[in-house]
Design a protein that fits this description.
Bound molecules: zinc ion
Shape: elongated
Radius of gyration: 35 Å
Largest sheet: 6 strands, mixed
Number of strands: 6
Helix content: 55-70%
Strand content: under 5%
Structural class: mainly alpha
Number of helices: 39
Length: 735
């Protein structure tokens, strides 16, 4: 008898015996079942299910397995619904078992697939080559080595290890759980040399950083496909070996293998991190020609690449042009601004992101907190800290906490930095380093050095960054003996070779203490050339100790090393001025003018109500300019009344930082302080950030201002913090 299933037969239910399905081709064309393949949501699926029950098809394994497959494997499906159908079946066949195992292996609880597999064995259904890839995948995903090995045993017993899918799944499982030796054994024992097995093993090597093994294996692949090339390129990018990644990519093109989206994402990441704008541009035109130019993941990678290669304009154009931005788009653009030192723009964009109700994540905060730190935007930084606490229940990411410590320290609130540090559950080396260097920036050498000892006591091994913090604490406080002790400990006990910053601290420390012979001897032992900063600190020491002849020698080095830096000319002219050698002062100034060197303008910023205001010397651009200058005059009047005599010699001869601009009371920090005085309540601490060193005149004026107005003034200059209070400064006038 020929059985025809037409729509009319739907009315009368069909009766099949379980496990005795009607011919496959008939079921295949059954209307309810063909609808399943087009089904997009669970509601329609449930309707189809009731249709299937009405027609009696639910008595067939085939119909139920199709139904289960639709619910279990589809992203729009419903695994628990699939499982409920599954549990209602008397004797599910292998196909049905395979489907639920597959569904479970794709879920967020993949180990459930292994449990189902055990039930399958117990029920007497025989696993086949479609069962194992998913069971093995679930073992890999949940990192269960023991279960994985057990399954491997079953595979061997059933003789399925020669199946190409099972074979590569085994290698993949071992590679993913880090059992590279087992992965290699499976690979070597089999004559199968399929591309998937090669790639699985290569990826395993790459993830464990064994790039050389990966490379060797890669060379053995007879026909290399795009996936194996991608594995190698991604591996080199992840290991930070960008040039090699790019070389691999170029070799891939020569081998005439067509790259795909994954290839280009890896290559763009390599370009971004190695600053290879030229190749980045080439990739852009390639993705555009190949129809990938509008893919969000690709555009995000392009934005990141342009931003990291300092082409922020193009990055912004791409970002703006995105019809739909995701969190990553915002993160790469904000991170790009911070990377390019456009800190205000980074904070603006972050604000905009929150206004659009895009929820930030740790990556976002790791970009905006350094921006706050650079700007000294304490209120904004505090607000972000509160936002994180409010919206993310438990703050544990050590990188984020370290970033908060940095932000507080650089914004002048060292107490808050200490609090964040004290409350950390798990501290990283970076968090210790952040607080040590924070304390040393604040001139608190005692606490910085105590913290260092505590860190060592708690079993952390200091690195070269720790020692920069420790040595600069010694330098700030003029602790020569301790400085010598620590640099020796670094070399002898910790086997860390000093780098330029370590030498810099020591030479600065020795120079300031007047130990010029020792400083020069140390410079002679340096395996690298001393940089401008080192010579510069030595020149400053010459000024401090009035060593004119030595200053001339040192300045000549600097003129050669940094021909466009006005700093050494200014310092040398000051040194001549102190010695009363006016002819030489004039000579240096003329030379400086002739060279036409532009100096960096002094700029001071102050944050009021989470907005950062910047002032240049003599700046009249601020909307409240009139009120600010009235306050500047008032400050000058009160300073004079309290016996402050502006050091006019500085106006005439000292060409220190703000040399050209004249009137001392209009130096940028004075404008910022005046603005702080008129826009905050009496008694509020004023925090300012200056891009250059504070001049001597402003330093002594600020001390007095702190007393007259009864305000604590915390100033960060290029090198360190000054806490002005009651007419004193924490730097004890040594800076
Ligand atoms: Zn000044
Ligand atoms: Zn000071």
């Amino acid at each position: 008898m020929t059985m025809l299933i037409s729509s009319s037969t739907l009315i009368s239910p069909l009766h099949f015996l379980p496990n005795s399905d009607p011919p496959y081709n008939l079921l295949q064309s059954q209307p309810s079942l063909s609808l399943l393949s087009k089904c997009k949501n669970i509601q329609t699926l449930k309707q189809i299910h009731s249709q299937i029950i009405k027609t009696g098809l639910h008595n067939t394994q085939f119909a139920l397995s199709k139904l289960i497959e639709s619910c279990a494997v589809n992203p729009s499906g419903d695994l628990s619904y699939a499982l409920s159908i599954f549990e209602s079946m008397d004797e599910p066949n292998t196909l049905v078992w395979n489907t639920v195992i597959r569904g479970k292996s794709l879920s967020s609880a993949p180990m459930g697939a292994f449990d189902l597999y055990i039930r399958m064995l117990v029920s007497g259904a025989e696993p086949n080559s479609y069962t194992f890839p998913f069971v093995l995948k679930s073992c890999a995903k949940s990192g269960n080595t023991q279960e994985g090995k057990q399954v491997h045993g079953h595979v061997l017993k059933l003789g399925l290890d020669s199946d190409v899918f099972v074979h590569s799944s085994l290698i993949n499982m071992y590679a993913q759980i880090g059992e590279l030796y087992c992965a290699r054994q499976v690979f070597d024992k089999s004559p199968l040399r399929d591309p998937v097995s090669y790639t699985a093993l290569i990826t395993g090597y790459v993830c464990r950083g064994c790039l050389e093994d990966a490379h060797k294996l890669f060379d053995e692949i007879p026909v290399k496909d795009v996936v194996s090339w991608n594995a190698m390129i991604a591996g080199y990018v992840q290991s930070g070996r960008f040039d090699e990644a790019i070389a691999f990519f170029q070799e891939m093109l020569r081998a005439e293998v067509t790259p795909n989206e994954s290839t280009m994402l890896s290559v763009l990441s390599a370009c971004a991190q190695s600053g290879n704008l030229e190749l980045g541009r080439w990739v852009r035109s390639w993705v555009e020609e190949n129809g990938l130019g509008t893919k969000l993941r690709v555009v995000n990678a392009l934005i990141d690449m342009y931003a990291k290669c300092d082409d922020l304009e193009t990055a912004w154009t791409l970002f703006e042009g995105l019809p739909q931005k995701n969190l990553i788009s915002w993160n790469v653009m904000i991170g790009g601004y911070t990377h390019g030192s456009l800190y205000k723009e980074a904070l603006c964009l972050f604000r905009e992101m929150l206004e659009l109700e895009v929820v930030p994540n740790d990556v976002t905060f790791l970009s905006v907190l350094p921006a706050c730190a650079h700007l000294g935007a304490l209120d904004y930084g505090k607000w972000i800290h509160a936002y994180i606490n409010r919206n993310f229940s438990h703050l544990t990411n050590p990188a984020l906490l370290t970033s908060l410590i940095n932000m507080y320290a650089k914004c002048g609130d060292i107490e808050a930095a200490k609090q964040v540090f004290d409350r950390m559950e798990t501290r990283s080396l970076a968090s210790w380093n952040a607080l040590i260097s924070g304390l040393s920036m604040h001139g608190d050498a005692n606490h910085a050095l105590d913290l260092f000892l505590r860190m060592v006591h708690e079993g952390f091994r200091p690195d070269d960054i720790t020692f920069v913090g420790v040595l600069s604490a010694c330098t700030q406080a003029g602790l020569v003996d301790l400085g010598r002790k620590y640099i020796n400990a670094m070399i002898e006990d910790y086997k860390i070779s000093p780098k330029v910053p370590h030498y810099g601290c020591m030479i600065d420390l020795l120079g300031r203490a007047g130990l010029f012979d020792e400083a020069e001897a140390l410079m002679d032992t340096m395996p690298m050339e001393p940089d401008g900063a080192i010579w510069g600190s030595l020149l400053a020491a010459c000024k401090l100790h009035k060593k004119v002849e030595m200053a001339e020698k040192v300045a000549n080095h600097l003129f050669e090393l940094e021909p466009n830096n006005p700093g050494p000319y200014v310092l040398l002219s000051n040194i001549y001025a102190i010695a009363g050698r006016w002819d030489d002062v004039a000579r240096v100034r003329t030379r400086l003018n002739d060279l036409g060197i532009k100096k960096v303008p002094g700029c001071t910023s102050i944050e009021i109500d989470s907005i950062v205001h910047e002032f240049l010397v003599g700046d009249k651009l601020h909307p409240q300019s009139n009120a600010i200058y009235e306050m500047v005059d008032e400050v000058d009047r009160l300073l004079a009344l309290n016996g402050h005599v502006p050091d006019t010699s500085e106006v005439l001869y000292d060409m220190d930082e703000d040399w050209k601009e004249g009137a001392l009371s209009h130096h940028s920090e004075r404008l910022a302080i005046a603005y702080g005085l008129i826009s905050t309540k009496p008694g509020t601490t004023i925090r300012i950030v200056k891009n250059l060193r504070v001049c001597g005149n402003c330093h002594s004026a600020t001390k007095l201002i702190s007393k007259i107005f009864n305000r604590e003034i915390i100033a960060r200059d290029r090198n360190r913090f000054h806490h002005f209070k009651d007419g004193q400064c924490s730097c004890m006038d040594q800076w």
